[in-house]
Amino acid sequence: MKNGIPISEHILPFLDYCEVEKGLSNNTQRNYNQYLRLFTGWLKIVGQEKLFPHEFTTKHLWDYRLYIARKYQNPKGGFLSKKSQNYYLIALRALLNYFADRDIDSLPSSKVKLAKQKSDDNISFLEASDVEKMLSIFDTDTFKGLRDRAILELFFSSGLRISELVSLNVDQMSMLSDKKTDKTYELSIVGKGRQVRTIFISPRAAQWLRRYLAARHYSLAKALFISLKSKDDENRLSARSIQVMVSKCARLAGLSKKVTPHTFRHSYATDLLAHGADLRSIQELLGHKNVATTQVYTHITNKRLRDVHEKFHGGRDMKS
């Protein structure tokens, strides 16, 4: 059906739909809102702020793609990378899917093609030696150093997303009270899209979590990882604080590459694959809905195998 409401007025109902029917996290909803604000802002720039869904054409879509690729600059004055462009396009595609689900005439979401990225740009991961360098940076005689060490140990042990780690509570760690030093612990979490999955905490990560929990005995906060700024019940450490900590730690460890909390998730998956884990298992451990999402890690391991072949076998002269 044709709808008498301009696209810009569909954004709030779309966000409600994301929460109630799609079960998307608050973080995803905020991101969609941010990305779609750029789209509706562009509609205003080009004099199309009253454009209806059924009037949205492939020409509009192409012009918008050119805008985010060539004209739009972020607050720091830089142009969007292809990866960043895709975030905006994915949000637009989700909006078009919403129109289809609501029987509102508009462009099919399949018309939104994502920008091509080099496979090497998709995944950044750490070698085990790089992880150890970062872990050795912390002064674990201090509460902050102990907390941050426990965070990175848990990231690498579990493959958690940062939003999942931040939302953990103290009471979820009650199983660590048995103090077994050789046990891998299982923990059920609610991940992206409110999907329940099991993560695993290695004996080493468990030991660091125990030490951290013992050091924060003074706090009544229900959050597992807490800030040092106050001691109230709402003192949950923010995702931004963890991002800053990880980035600073990588610099202090002498790593030249950009390292984020998600880099640890990539490193976790790549390490599993390199040691023989199958894609389906990794898919479940990461909480990917589709194995195609997980297959991106094969590009990394395949490249590493090629490098090994070229170094130790390929190109050598054979003596007769």
Automatic annotation (TrEMBL):
Stored CDD domains: INT_XerDC_C
Core-binding (CB) domain mapped to chain residues: 5-100
UniProt domain Tyr recombinase: residue ranges: 121-310
Entry keywords, A to Z: DNA integration, DNA recombination, DNA-binding
GO molecular function, one term: DNA binding
Family annotation (Pfam families): Phage_int_SAM_1, Phage_integrase
Organism domain of life: Bacteria
GO BP terms in the entry: DNA integration; DNA recombination
InterPro entries assigned to the protein according to its UniProt record, in alphabetical order: CB, DNA_brk_join_enz, Integrase-like_cat_sf, Integrase_catalytic, Integrase_recombinase_N, Integrase_SAM-like_N, Tyrosine_recombinase_XerCD
Listed name of the protein: Tyrosine recombinase XerC
Organism: Candidatus Doudnabacteria bacterium RIFCSPHIGHO2_02_FULL_46_11
